[in-house]
Specification:
Two copies of one chain form a homodimer. With 236 residues, chain A is α+β, with helices and mostly antiparallel strands. Chain A contains seven helices and ten strands. Chain A has two domains: 64 residues, Arc Repressor Mutant, subunit A (Orthogonal Bundle), CATH 1.10.10.10; 138 residues, 3-Layer(aba) Sandwich (Chorismate lyase). At the A-B interface, α1, β3, β7, β8 and β10 of A face α1, β3, β7, β8 and β10 of B. Chain A binds a DNA duplex (19 and 19 nucleotides) through α3.
DNA sequence: AAGTGGTCTAGACCACCTC
DNA sequence: AGGTGGTCTAGACCACTTG
């Protein structure tokens, strides 16, 4: 039974995948050379390559020149996590989006932020606090620092109309991004903004983005209680 | 200046990527056909394909037959998240791993778990509670349900010696996995197990794994306060 | 209907890494 | 030093989808 009839390399990937699930190939085992597998399936080596690379990308196989292909020992769950801009997140859930700028000032980056920016000196920054609402209900409270060295032109943008989130994404695409996810208790001030009681558990996403080696922004986004982050479904 | 000299397709990917960052190609814009780009870079079309597919996988481009290649509008941050088994997580942080089985019983799946398994009936399950310790300090408290229909042989395994986590990964690889991440307040019982005060905010990972369409296990892993989940660094 | 990306081939050379 | 995966080519056909 050939599973699909659409693309040969997906068939092959599924066959090999099945053998791993079957324990035909066990963690740590070495697979035949690509060429032998190509002979077995009667196809070009590059087709096998395509299949094997796919499995390697998913973390199931490890490939080394001369070392051959082996099944990953101690496999892990690899998922991809897509973090949209907050407006899209809200709209894709079928809610109406609204945005409110709470605070806007120019300050030098405190040590903590400078550390996120991997800099020793304190850089001039824009400090923003804002609220993203879904159907009028507070959804995300974010505290953001934007490097005025990297993005000086943001001083001329009216950030009460468009969120810094969106302006940056549209005008200053980043080349790298660090993400951290953790749980925290919200402070009284945060609770007030979010319209919830203090000491509630909330999910926090922190992101720092860069263009080349210059830091663009650091943002700490506090989500409404009960918020669930759902990575894309994944294969072993 | 050609950035790398190693692989042509990476050069091309970086060049195209640069043009997106440069705003040469803006969100929503249509790129030239692969063949034209191949002519520009004087290479085979399949080399361009390799580069474009890479960018498409990262979520930066969208490709459609006949529709051509366009720059993603409203870009999002795409990261990959690797979730190792708890023992490896602890050991890779340089701590000594220890495991303690708290509870082990055979019960029918409550409605909530049956829902996670996408089943209407209540399946016979193994219900486990266990603690993973790092240098003797509670690190993860997990509550796990294992389907005895899918994995009957687990009844013969001594789960006080090896964690279900590891036994399953080694003996019952899964083909699919659903993940959810959220923040919660720990209960008094959980706090006692974790050696922390009640009402602390904790990060919770819930996973359901499947082999084909049969559910294997559902696990809810409660992490120590302050735990940070860190996806792999990502490109735009 | 036709244009575009997706797949595949057969062969070649290269780069890395163990053996 | 040799074997393995990684890349590349030139060309072909296919499959999807839009004009």
């Amino acid at each position: 039974m050939k599973t699909t009839r659409k693309s040969r390399w997906k068939d092959i990937r599924n066959q090999i995948n099945k053998r791993i699930l079957n324990q035909t190939y066990r963690p740590g085992d070495k697979l035949p050379r690509d060429e032998d597998i190509a002979n077995e399936f009667d196809c070009a080596r590059s087709t096998v390559q395509r299949a094997m690379r796919s499995l390697a990308d998913e973390g199931m196989l490890q490939r080394k020149r001369k070392g051959g292909t082996t099944v990953t020992t101690d496999p892990f769950t690899r998922t991809t996590l897509d973090i949209p801009i907050t407006r899209r997140d809200i709209e894709s859930r079928g809610h109406r989006y609204h945005y409110h700028l709470i605070h806007n000032s120019q300050e030098r980056a405190p040590a903590k932020i400078a550390a996120c920016f991997k800099q020793t000196h304190s850089e001039p920054c824009l400090k923003l606090e804002s609220l993203h609402l879904a159907d009028g209900r507070p959804y995300v409270y974010e505290r953001r620092w934007i490097s005025l060295t990297t993005v000086p032109e943001i001083q001329n943008v009216d950030l009460s109309e468009i969120s810094a989130n969106e302006w940056l994404v549209r005008n200053r695409p980043f080349s790298r991004c660090d993400v951290q996810i953790h749980a925290s208790i919200c402070t009284e001030k945060e609770a007030e903004y979010m319209g919830i009681t203090a000491n509630t558990a909330v999910l926090i996403l922190e992101r720092t983005t860069w263009i080349s080696e210059s830091p663009i922004t650091h943002v700490r986004a506090l989500h409404e209680p009960g918020y669930r982050l759902i990575p894309n479904g994944s294969m072993s």
